[in-house]
Amino acid sequence: MRPLAADDPRRIGAYRLLGRLGRGAMGAVYLGRSPGGRPVAVKVVRGELAEDPTFRERFRREVASARAVGGFWTAVVVDADTEAERPWLATEYVAGPNLHEAVTRHGPLPEPAVRMLTAGLAEALSAIHAAGLVHRDLKPGNVLLGVDGPRVIDFGISRAMEGASLTMTGVFFGTPGFFSPEQTTGEEIGPASDVFSLAAVLVFAATGSSPFGEGHTTALLYRVVHTDPDLSRLSPGLRELLGPCLAKDPVARPTPAQLLAAVGDVGTAAREPTQWLPEQVTSLIAERTELLWAEPAMPAGTRVATAAAPAPADPQPPAAQAPRPPAERPLPPPPAQKPPTRLLTKVAEEPTPPAAPAPPPLPVAAAQAVGKAVGRARAKATARTAARNAAATAARRLDQALAEGTRFSGTRGGSVFFGVLGLVLAVTFAVAVRNGALSTGTPYGDVFEVLVVIGATYFALSGVVSLMRASSSPVELVLSPLGLTVLRGRRRRHLDWHQVTGLRIVGRGRKRWLVAWLADGVPPPGPLGSHRFPEYRGGICLYPLGQKRNRREVRRQARELHEALRWYARGSYDGSGSKL
């Protein structure tokens, strides 16, 4: 960490800045401290980017998406201000080196550490992808090593940089040697791109170099697309684990969940959290943690003296001291401590009763059985607690996403209008028939009167049905970074983005639907009262557009939904086949 320069800010939001951690293409990163004393990493956007409206809009959306990312191995976004003169965000601070620094200073990591690193980073990518994000710049510098495991940083903001006005044709956003072939060739980027970058990062952790070597950027770009990675320095187990992740075809790469399953349970590799890294790296983490907390957490507004405090003056002899005023007379000395009473002495002298004999030790088999039973009970209790906490966290995240997401809904105005109109016509015809205003006394007049009665009955039923529709809750659709949610009243059905393989707007005129195709193994959502999800060519009709609006309103909502799906759904939405 470097000290703050003259042009560096001293405070961002509520955070007092202590030093500069680094500087990149987006801006500077500072170490800050919250009013409560918690350390955070504060990233402040460069002034040139802050003046770009396109970047600001993308940055605002990406920060909202990043806040929805959970999981254990990501640096959580704790605060942000996207409307500031220079936008910023604050994340959890990890008092440890990044992977590039650790490997450069102390050499490659041993295989057990690489496997634990694989598990942590794969779990982090699963959480990032579940929030609808793609990291796009996973590299050793964006992996921090903590005492309890790795942390992935800078997720959710790379896409904002790609849309900035500073990104020009021929300029790649990313790190050569660590981004995927599809990033190099400018093709569509999805979660599989992060898997490729993850494998390249892990090869660096195990060998100290990129799987595509070193050299000029142009040479690295060519090797990533056209040559096979160099995995000769990996152990056979790591070569088998990471080789498929570096496939040129994104479809051939495993998902983070599959990679996590392949690496297996690494929890038993280190019984203590500090044992997962080499001793030199662990010592570096401990040193930085000690330095971090050695800096006092001063309250806001406190000034730090720059000059040393003067040494205390030598005490003057008693004769030179000024006479003490009466109000400052010294207090009388405290009374002497009373000696112990006879009762206490007697009790103290009584012999201590002998301790009860220890119970005989359990046999080894019995002790092992008891230990296993206690362990199973604790494991079940821990699993139940973790499940409850996970469910509560997921519910809170979904509620927040619903509040901040883009909402589409129908209208009740048309149903109310036609309901009232139908009842008015029915009453009018009924009164006319009752008063004989339509009777002509001829056979044709009687037939006409019967037809009027039938029409009045039809209008009455239509009016009642329309008013019943107006009184019921409309079907709503909310798009958020977590996924898409269909609501009706208090009921809701939610689908994460990774559960959806395709989306399309189908139909014409006023009858249009948003159709979703689900991933294998994902059950279709249940009905929302009377609203059901009919099948359509292997998918399900998820949301009816317009809901009885006129054609112009339906077309407008289709266009708005199209733009929202292009942003939130990304790779899942087929805009070319949608009916707008």
Number of folding domains?
A: 3
Residues in helices, as a percent range: 40-55%
Might you state the CATH topology name of the largest domain?
A: Transferase(Phosphotransferase), domain 1
| Name of the CATH first level of the largest domain | Mainly Alpha
CATH architecture of the largest domain: Orthogonal Bundle
Mass-distribution shape: elongated
- Summed over residues and divided by their number, the pLDDT gives a mean of 76
How would you sum up this structure, described in words?
- InterPro entries: Kinase-like_dom_sf (IPR011009), Prot_kinase_dom (IPR000719), Protein_kinase_ATP_BS (IPR017441), Ser/Thr_kinase_AS (IPR008271).
- GO terms for molecular function: ATP binding; protein serine/threonine kinase activity.
- This is Protein kinase domain-containing protein.
- The protein is of the alpha+beta class and 580 residues long.
- It has three domains: 283 residues, Transferase(Phosphotransferase), domain 1 (Orthogonal Bundle), CATH 1.10.510.10; 59 residues; 92 residues, no CATH class.
- Helix content is 40%, strand content 15%.
- The protein is built from 16 helices and 16 strands.
- It has a six-stranded antiparallel β-sheet with strand order 1-2-3-4-6-5. The protein has a four-stranded antiparallel β-sheet with strand order 9-10-11-12, with helices on both faces.
- Helix 4 runs antiparallel to helix 10.
- The protein is elongated, with a radius of gyration of 35 Å.
- About 13% of the residues have low confidence.
Give a brief outline of the structure:
The chain is α+β, with helices and mostly antiparallel strands.
